[in-house]
Amino acid sequence: MHAKLKIIVSMVAFGTISIFVRNISLSSGEIALFRAIVAAMVILIYKGLTGNKLPLSGMKKDLPILFISGVAMGFNWILLFEAYKYTSVSIATLSYYFAPVIVMVLSPILFKEKLTIKQVVCFFMSTIGLIMIIGIGGIDRSSANLIGIVFGLGAAVLYASVVLLNKFVKNVSGIDKTLIQFFAAIIVLIPYVLTTSGINIGSLDLVGIANLLILGSIHTGVCYCLYFSSLKDLKGQEVSILSYIDPLVAIIISVAILGEPISLLQLIGGMMILGFTLLNEIEIKINIKKLLTKYFIQLKY
Question: Which pLDDT does position 135 carry in this prediction?
Answer without folding.
Answer: 67
